[in-house]
Amino acid sequence: MIVADETPAFKVIKESIIELLPESSIILFGSMARHDHSDDSDYDLMIITKDFHDNKQIRLFKSLIRKKLAHNHIPADIIIQSKEEVELKKKITGHIVRQAIMEGIPLTSGDENSFKQLQS
User: Fold this and answer.
1) At 14, which CATH number?
2) Exposed site from 22, 27, 59, 94, fewest CB < 10 Å?
C-alpha cells in the first residue's frame, strides 16, 4: 500500500481535516492519486468519519475545511461519509465512493489497514 508522500499541501490538508474531524480517515483520489493531474487540477478528498453526521453538519465541516485549504491556495473537492455509509456505497457500480476506494491513496500511514479492509 502506497501512502501519499508528505508534501506541504498534504500536510496542510491533513492538519485542516484532523483539527475538525480528529478520528477521520483521509483518502486522496482522482487525478492527483492517479498522477495524471494538470496544473489546474484540484485535490479530490474523501473523509471517512467514525460517526454519522447529518447534512447540516457535513456542509459546515466542508465549508470550514475548504476555507482553510483555500487560505493555503489548495483547491479541493471534498466528500464526507461515515464508515457505515462507505461500506454500503462502495458496492454500487459507478458511485463516487466506489471510485475513491478503488483508486484512492490514504493520506496518513495509520489509515493503511482500515483502507485495505474497505477495499475488500
Assistant:
1) 3.30.460.10
2) 94
Rounded to whole angstroms, how far apart are CA atoms 38 and 31?
8
In a domain, 60, yes or no: yes
Beta bridge partners of 48: 25, 81
Helix (H) or strand (E) holding 118: helix 112-119
Strands 25-29 and 43-49, bridge-based pairing: antiparallel
What is the structure's pLDDT at 69? 98
Written as nine digits, the cell of 35 is 498522477
| pTM (two decimals) | 0.86
Residue 29 — left, alpha, or beta (φ > 0 → left; ψ -120 to 50 → alpha)?
beta
Regarding beta strands 76-82 and 43-49, do their DSSP bridges make them parallel or antiparallel, or are they unpaired? Answer: parallel
In a domain, 3, yes or no: no
Cell digits of residue 100: 475513491
Cell of 70: 483555500
Task: Provide the domain count of the chain.
Answer: 1
